[in-house]
Amino acid sequence: MKYSLSFSLLALLLVFTACEPPNLGFQSNSPEFNLELFESNLQNYLSGKTVGFAYTIAHEGELLKSWSEGQARLAMDGPIENMSIDKSIYMASVSKTITAAAVMTLIEELNLSIDDPIAPYLPPNWEQGPGIDELSFKDLLTHRSGMPGEGFSFSDLRGYIKEGLGPKTYDYANSNFGIFRIVVPFMAGMIDNKNVSDSEMDLNTSM
Known about the structure:
three-stranded antiparallel beta sheet, 8 helices, 5 strands, 39% helix
């Protein structure tokens, strides 16, 4: 999670440093985002300081900027492979930052609070063990859920919900964010039939 947080702070820093005072020819009292300056900041910060990196910058579905540099894989890990903008990579816990953004967006859209329970957004055929009815978004986002395991497969998550929760003390575990793989589609109304089979639910929520 430390790397995800660092990446997020870097992105925020680069956004803020890519803002310039408004052009006096425009009626604006706020700084304006400068795409060229943002890209320059990004390249200056990373170029020559990483094994490899790539980025794309899009707005409303249109690709505006892209760049790749360095290597995606070194000789010690197998055949050398150059980085590219369409290179598939293992995101690992960077996905937690994206997940948190999605969850907070849906909480706002649904007029919920981070202290609200997640239970209404679990499959209705899942048996809920002790404490699940009081398990909140905040508990999961802060790794204080008491989730009894580390796994994040569909069967793992269903088993944890059935088993119930332990003490709500801090314990960094992927299951805290893994359960959002089930919760987010329900929050977003993407699951048409809540009473589908486990195999269908597994496929639908993974998609």
